[in-house]
UniProtKB/TrEMBL annotation:
Enzyme Commission number(s) from the entry: 3.5.4.28, 3.5.4.31
Sites where the protein binds Zn(2+): 62, 64, 208, 297
Reported function: Catalyzes the deamination of 5-methylthioadenosine and S-adenosyl-L-homocysteine into 5-methylthioinosine and S-inosyl-L-homocysteine, respectively. Is also able to deaminate adenosine.
Organism annotation: Paenibacillus sp. AN1007
Amidohydrolase-related domain: residues covered: 54-400
Gene: mtaD
Pfam families: Amidohydro_1
UniProt keyword tRNA-binding present: no
Top EC category: hydrolase
Protein name: 5-methylthioadenosine/S-adenosylhomocysteine deaminase
Length: 430
């Protein structure tokens, strides 16, 4: 199958390349040509790109997709109240089938709002993998592991099974990571075991780090070090590719310890704002050469999975934190949500840019809207004015998943019927 997008405004996200008007040819699951004009070939699915902007699909670097079933259920609470009074009791009621439909709801929202890949950490990952397979999106899947009580090795075995069964599945759209949940839920010996296994198998790691002040205080009281020092002591940064979710409460020494690491940090600005967790030191990390991507976290905290809202918040937070409007300029935030997140998911050679040879993961944004006129600076418009509802077309792996705002791989009526019934049962009485 071949697709030809004609005369769109193209933002490739390649270094120093300004937006330009041109055509994009897709053959199979890859981009094969980008040029000012490309001659149509017999059998091409020709798309009119006029009044549209083509850019790499956004990459959500940290998610808990089934939590979409808990959207709006526990807002305006302190973190531990949110977690202990609402999230944990509700999640305990979720069946594997609930997990599948919650993941599918998140995927529908992500496709609609321009996300083409996401990194997920949860339980019942087989069901999430099935939802990814059916819907056509790209994902890095992680079975989150808590080692605070003895479960007979069940969580670890489920993580191993996930990696063995699903790595490279769905035509390569599914990749996997090992997911020790966080420093405060993983004593050092099982943590070292997982790290050694990840290194031996060349599988990346996905872990929460320093999301709250309480976590920092807890690790300090237990071990006399910061959470970052704790992970370093366990050997996490020696040979592993690591995706660090949140990384809010890092001091200068912590940031120095992360310098040169493989992988990087997933910034979740909206979730951190809503839960009052703090502002991640994104500018300080990037100044040290640490890769930073952007994620939404789960909809149970962030409420929306619209990555364009995260891009706005990422810009605003750094400007506010420094009292300097030149901090976190629009182009940098866009790179974080595309190329930066791609590197965190170990997809930097496949996604995050529009270029011949890259996977055909891209979106078309409808520019014929009053809030997107006039166009003085395309990147500023994307970072500060565009929202997920402006996405017209979403393509992943060369397959059109949404066109003219219509989802093509998900039955929305069925989806909404299922999630309404399931969500009501899950939260009833909590």
């Amino acid at each position: 199958m071949s697709i030809l997008i004609q005369q769109a405004t193209i933002l490739t996200m390649q270094e120093t390349e300004a937006p330009f008007t041109g055509d994009i040819r897709i053959e199979g699951n890859r981009i094969v040509q980008i040029a000012a004009h490309i001659r149509p070939q017999p059998g091409d699915d020709v798309m009119d790109g006029r009044n549209k902007l083509a850019m790499p699909g956004l990459i959500n670097a940290h998610q808990h997709s089934p939590m979409s079933l808990l959207r709006g259920f526990s807002d305006d609470l302190k973190l531990m109240d949110w977690l202990e009074r609402k999230m944990l009791p509700a999640e305990a009621r979720m069946t594997p089938e609930d997990i599948y439909w919650g993941a599918k709801l998140s995927i529908a929202e992500m496709i609609r709002s321009g996300t083409t890949s996401f990194a997920d950490m949860y339980i019942h990952m087989n069901e999430i993998a099935e939802a990814v397979t059916e819907t056509g999106i790209r994902a890095s899947l992680t079975r989150g592991m808590v080692f605070m009580e003895d479960d007979g090795g069940r969580r670890l075995q489920e993580a191993i099974d996930l990696v063995q069964r699903w790595s490279g599945a769905a035509n390569g759209r599914i990749t996997t990571m090992y997911g020790p949940h966080s420093p405060y839920t993983c004593p050092i010996e099982p943590l070292r075991e997982v790290i050694a296994m990840a290194v031996q198998q060349n599988v990346p790691l996905h872990i929460h780090l320093a999301e709250t002040k309480e976590e920092v205080e807890k690790i300090r009281s237990r071990y006399g070090m910061t959470p970052t020092e704790y992970l370093e002591e366990a050997g996490m940064f020696e040979q592993s590719h690591v995706l660090l979710a949140h990384a809010v409460h890092l001091n200068a020494a912590d940031i120095s310890r992360l310098k040169g690491m493989r992988g990087g940090a997933a910034h979740n600005p909206v979730s951190n704002l809503k839960l009052g967790c703090g502002t991640a030191p994104v500018e300080a990390m990037t100044a040290e050469g640490i890769t930073v991507g952007i994620g939404t976290d789960g909809a149970g905290s962030t409420t929306t999975l619209d990555m364009f809202e995260e891009i706005k918040a990422a810009c605003w937070l750094q400007k506010l934190d420094y009292g300097d409007p030149t901090r976190m300029p629009a182009p940098r935030a866009l790179r974080m949500a595309t190329r930066g997140s791609a590197e965190l998911l170990a997809l930097q050679d496949e996604a995050g840019m529009l270029a011949p040879g890259y996977k055909a993961d891209l979106i078309l944004i409808d520019l014929a809207k009053p809030h997107l006129k006039p166009i003085h600076d395309v990147e500023a418009l994307l970072a500060y004015s565009v929202n997920g509802a402006d996405v017209h077309t979403t393509i992943v792996d060369g397959q059109v998943l949404m066109k003219d705002r219509k989802l093509l791989t998900i039955d929305e009526d069925e989806l909404y019927r299922e999630v309404n019934v399931r969500a009501k049962r899950i939260v009833e009485g909590i």
